[in-house]
Amino acid sequence: MVYAGAPAETALSDSDKINLMNLDLKAMEAFVQELGAKPFHGRNLLKWIHRHGVVDFNAMTDIAKSLRERLTQVAEIRVPEVVFDQPSRDGTHKWVMQLGCGNRVETVFIPETGRGTLCISSQVGCSLNCSFCSTAQQGFNRNLSVAEIIGQLWVAARRMHKPVTNVVLMGMGEPLANFDAVVSAMSIMQSDLAYMLSKYRVTVSTSGIVPALKKLAEVSDVTLAVSLHAPDNALRDQLVPINRKYPLEQLIPACRDFLNGDRRRKITWEYVMLDGVNDSDRQAKQLVRLLQGTPSKVNLIPFNPFPGTGYRSSSPERILAFRDRLMRAGIMTMTRKTRGEDIAAACGQLVGRVQDRSRRGLAPAGASVGDIQA
Ligand code: SAH
């Protein structure tokens, strides 16, 4: 059963009340105006919910009592239900959130010195079918609502003692295939009334849906990470099948345009290191040529295996050699450390759980994200 495009509320709420977690600032202002109140109450509501974590209207002391009463009748603030909360030995932390209809998604917090990165999901499952990704094996179930996306940050911000300084949309799903909800949720992340994250601290990771990228450039200035994984179309067609629709000659210029001439910005290219597949010196050279003229940094991700996969990660020596080639050509290159392995929380292993959906293959009951060094 596919729920694509299902109304936002269905996942979190079984009542007729509007879930205010689904509303960004503009929507919140419009909503209070509909109730006959001044738009600034919308700002107050956003602040109470996201900055202060308050979900009880009665505790919102600067909102008039009559409006609070009205809100109680027609609205609610419903956050995702955490069914699993597990710390890893290395400080990584994973939550599994229950979304209704048996659907679950996973969120991972990765603390490092001076920063705390939260990796969040945007869909239950994924339709893109990248050959090395375990989320692909469960197929696509549905888009997350704004409430479910921002709810992951709401939960992490309340439960962690360390602040969330960075958010990466690198969990389950293709964020740009759930465009409107993702853009709304990111605007809440960036809002001064809510999480106050700068455009450099919110990163959206995409497989490269070119028309959506162009649209994103018009409405958002967040940081872009692109799952490249291959230096030529023939190989990328195999690894990231969406490449057949939007090949490199469309993708690369669209990414360059995204930067809009801002010299402080760079595209982060993600490149999973697959033994004997995309990790040769020749391919490193091809990659250098491909990225010429685009302000870039490259994140090499050691492949994280999962049951049933035919791939293996490149050896640490090969990854180092590949990285050296790129560095010598002047491309800033980092190797992502794998973290949270003991709790199945490393990159590309996010699988969640989906009801009413026959899985495409074996899927471990775990999640994962690597160490994000955007
Ligand atoms: N749909 C988005 C987000 C995917 S997850 C995208 O394609 O960018 C974030 C990153 O993890 C992507 O670069 C993805 O290609 C990578 N990834 C997926 N499976 C992996 C695995 N098994 N090992 C390492 N990285 C993986």
Properties at a glance:
374 residues; alpha/beta; DNA polymerase, domain 1; TIM Barrel; 2 domains; ten-stranded mixed sheet; two-stranded parallel ribbon; 11 helices; 31% helix; disordered C terminus
Structure description:
This protein has 374 residues and is an alpha/beta fold. It has two domains: 14-76, DNA polymerase, domain 1 (Orthogonal Bundle), CATH 1.10.150; 81-371, Alpha-Beta Barrel (TIM Barrel). The chain has helices at residues 25-34, 40-51, 65-74, 134-137, 146-159, 179-190, 210-219, 233-239, 248-259, 281-291, 316-328; strands at residues 18-19, 75-76, 81-87, 93-98, 104-112, 115-119, 123-125, 140-143, 166-169, 202-206, 223-227, 267-273, 296-302, 332-335. The strands form three sheets. It has a ten-stranded mixed beta sheet with strand order 3-4-5-6-9-10-11-12-13-14. The radius of gyration is 21 Å and the shape is globular. The chain starts with 17 loop residues before the first strand and ends in a 39-residue tail after the last strand. S-adenosyl-L-homocysteine binds next to strand 10 and strand 12.
Topology readout:
Blueprint: E1 18-19, H1 25-34, H2 40-51, H3 65-74, E2 75-76, E3 81-87, E4 93-98, E5 104-112, E6 115-119, E7 123-125, H4 134-137, E8 140-143, H5 146-159, E9 166-169, H6 179-190, E10 202-206, H7 210-219, E11 223-227, H8 233-239, H9 248-259, E12 267-273, H10 281-291, E13 296-302, H11 316-328, E14 332-335
Parallel strand pairs: 1-2, 6-9, 9-10, 10-11, 11-12, 12-13, 13-14
Antiparallel strand pairs: 3-4, 4-5, 5-6, 7-8
Helix pairs in contact: 1-2, 5-6, 7-9, 10-11
The structure holds S-adenosyl-L-homocysteine.
